[in-house]
Amino acid sequence: MAQALPLTPSNHDRDSAEMTYVYPVVSRRAGGVSVGVNLNPNNACNWACVYCQVPNLTRGAAPDIDLVRLGAELSVMLTRILHGDFMQPRVPAGTRRLNDIALSGNGEPTSARVFPQVVELIGRVMADFGLVGKIKLVLITNGSLIDRPRVQTGLGKMAPLNGEVWFKFDSATSSGMRSINQTRISPDKQFERLGIAAQLCPTWLQTCVFALDGAPPSVNEQAAYLAAVARVVQHQIPVQGVLLYVLARPSMQPQACRLSSLPAEWLDGFAEKIRAAGLPVKVSL
Ligand code: SF4
């Protein structure tokens, strides 16, 4: 997926480090740094979400990944952050910490054929830097490939690395997924994939809310979403909660001019309804 890290505002430039796969994300508000791993330098994704921040997005999969280069880039970046002068000019004193490594880039990371090998490699580099158990390894995914054995192997390898899956879940209806994510995937199939992910690695639902042509999600859309949340709870799918976020950065897609932010009250009200349906919510403005 990633929509790109939905994390926070801030300095988030995948080219800033002049690396192919690895980029730093400085979060001034939350404090600290996230190291992003972009497995889609070709800007290819199997979805085309209307709010996607990837420029020149094309339909497709990740290219072949140069694992040696990826490992070297990650080591160099971690050395700069942990032992070099990366933090001082960029992160306020008192909040200089490494928060996580996030598989999030310009497309769907699990479309990389070597996804499990990438997780293994990141685990080895984390161990080299004494980071296992100290920071999270986050996968930001649209979840559409989680029924593939190699992706499940990768998720299984993430769990002992303090792994966390952020599973995109913007709509629980076919029409909503077609309109927002521009995919014809069935919501029921996605629900099954969510169950698989949550069994393999701690998983959060990741939901972007916004107004389309000035209107918030319809009453029917909201009802379907809340019914899906209730179904997660009923089926005892071990989802950690919902990450509810807004348009932090402009969409780079042709629909950008149709999107706008929702008022904070709307967001708060929707978060309350999700909590009432049974899941914890973290709101990211
Ligand atoms: S899943 Fe959507 S937001 Fe994420 S990279 Fe693909 S098109 Fe962009």
**Number of strand elements:** 13
Shape call? globular
Secondary-structure element series: EEEEEHHEHEHEHHEEHEEHE
**What Rg, in angstroms, do the CA atoms define?**
18 Å
In round numbers, the mean pLDDT is: 92
Q: Which ligands, by name, code or SMILES, are bound?
A: iron/sulfur cluster
Uncertain segments: 1-15
Which structural class do you get from the secondary structure elements? alpha/beta
- State the assembly state of the protein chains: single chain
Distance between the termini: 20 Å
Percentage of residues assigned to helices:
25-40%
In percent, how much strand structure appears in the residues? 15-25%
Largest sheet: 9 strands, mixed
Largest beta sheet: strand ordering: 1-2-3-6-7-8-9-11-13
Identify the notable features of this structure and list them briefly.
8 helices, nine-stranded mixed β-sheet, single chain, 285 residues, disordered N terminus, alpha/beta, binds iron/sulfur cluster
Can you describe this structure in just a few lines?
This protein is of the alpha/beta class and 285 residues long. The chain has helices at residues 67-83, 87-90, 115-128, 149-158, 174-180, 187-200, 219-234, 264-277, and strands at residues 11-12, 22-26, 33-37, 44-45, 58-59, 98-103, 136-141, 163-168, 203-208, 211-212, 239-245, 259-260, 281-284. Residues 1-15 have low confidence and may be disordered.
